[in-house]
UniProtKB/TrEMBL annotation:
<comment type="similarity">
    <text>Belongs to the ACC deaminase/D-cysteine desulfhydrase family.</text>
</comment>
<dbReference type="InterPro" id="IPR036052">
    <property type="entry name" value="TrpB-like_PALP_sf"/>
</dbReference>
<protein>
    <submittedName>
        <fullName>1-aminocyclopropane-1-carboxylate deaminase/D-cysteine desulfhydrase</fullName>
    </submittedName>
</protein>
<dbReference type="Pfam" id="PF00291">
    <property type="entry name" value="PALP"/>
</dbReference>
<dbReference type="InterPro" id="IPR001926">
    <property type="entry name" value="TrpB-like_PALP"/>
</dbReference>
<feature type="modified residue" description="N6-(pyridoxal phosphate)lysine">
    <location>
        <position position="39"/>
    </location>
</feature>
<feature type="domain" description="Tryptophan synthase beta chain-like PALP">
    <location>
        <begin position="3"/>
        <end position="281"/>
    </location>
</feature>
<feature type="active site" description="Nucleophile">
    <location>
        <position position="66"/>
    </location>
</feature>
<dbReference type="InterPro" id="IPR027278">
    <property type="entry name" value="ACCD_DCysDesulf"/>
</dbReference>
<keyword id="KW-0663">Pyridoxal phosphate</keyword>
<dbReference type="GO" id="GO:0019148">
    <property type="term" value="F:D-cysteine desulfhydrase activity"/>
</dbReference>
Length: 287
């Protein structure tokens, strides 16, 4: 899969200067036009598995706006693999941009009711998928599994290790787990949860990197919960683009960046600290 190396840019803001904090942003959103940001790294070893598998088929799950489905469809298209997307909710006659894109990249869309979707990790449900689609490599919703954590950890190991803090947005936590695994244990990794009440997430992250304690899940910047946002957050994103020329979106990266600004204002970081924030992408060609 093509990979474009990405710039590291400093974000200059009067509030940062006043607090004596430096913030750098790794523009990982620019690593691939469609398989962008953390999704490139999370898919890397999963795609390797598909390549090794006789079926050359990837099956995965997502909601109708899923960045993961979008990226998986594009990656499989580029590599000549078959892809199946199990989509939560019923089919609408008019596809939204995400699903239309996935379909155009050859992804076979399989709609299941919200009720059945809840059982997507259960053996019975997976068996019905096997009856319908025969054999495939299954990648869970959001793409988080050991292969994804391994990919994200490789990304972390490629970063300049000298920052005091490494920051990323969190959905399922697979990316955060990889960053924790791959960044030096003497540094602190901060995950900004995009979900409200992400119960059990910290335990899941801990399972992926059991020996690590140098991380924290920040849960104050969900802005109402997953895929929810406020006018203030949208205003922040517009202002950030205007001030720094960097597009963010309201589901993940906008929440993280807004959280970083707020924590700096609150004096969360010691004067002299350096932060490296990861732009995990998710723009899907918008903005
Ligand atoms: C999927 C996604 C995330 C969340 O990654 P997880 O590994 O599920 O925590 C963060 N940012 C963007 C832009 C994403 O698309």
């Amino acid at each position: 899969m093509a990979y474009q190396s990405t710039p590291l840019v400093e974000i200059h803001d009067p509030a940062f200067a006043e607090a004596g904090i430096r913030v750098m942003l790794k523009r990982e959103d620019l690593n691939h036009p469609y398989v962008s940001g953390n999704k490139w790294w999370k898919l890397k070893y999963n795609l390797e598995k598909v390549f090794q598998h006789p079926s050359k088929t990837l099956l995965t799950f997502g909601g109708a706006y899923s960045n993961h489905l979008y990226a998986a469809a594009a990656a499989c298209h580029e590599l000549g693999f078959r892809s199946i997307g199990v989509v939560r909710g019923e089919e609408h006659p008019l596809l939204n941009d995400t699903l239309q894109f996935a379909k155009d990249r050859g992804m076979q869309l399989h709609y299941v009711s919200r009720e059945s979707y809840r059982h997507k990790t259960e053996a019975d449900f997976i068996e019905t998928l096997e009856k319908e689609f025969s054999s495939f490599v299954l990648v869970p919703e959001g793409g988080s599994n050991e292969e994804a954590v391994q990919g994200a950890s490789e990304f972390a190991a490629s970063l300049d290790p000298s920052f005091d803090y490494l920051c990323c947005p969190v959905g399922t936590g697979g990316t955060l787990a990889g960053l924790i695994r791959g960044y030096p244990p003497t540094k602190t990794v901060l995950g900004f949860s995009a979900l409200k009440g992400a119960y059990g997430m910290a335990e899941e992250i801990q399972r992926w990197c059991p020996s690590k304690t140098n991380w924290q899940l920040i849960t104050d910047y969900h802005f109402g919960g997953y895929a929810k946002f406020t006018p203030d957050l949208l205003q922040f994103i517009v202002q950030f683009k205007e001030d720094h020329g960097v597009p963010l979106e309201p589901i993940y990266t906008g929440k993280m960046m807004s959280g970083i600004f707020d924590l700096i204002k609150q004096g969360f970081f010691k004067r002299g600290s350096t932060l490296l924030a990861i732009h995990t992408g998710g723009l899907q060609g918008k903005y």
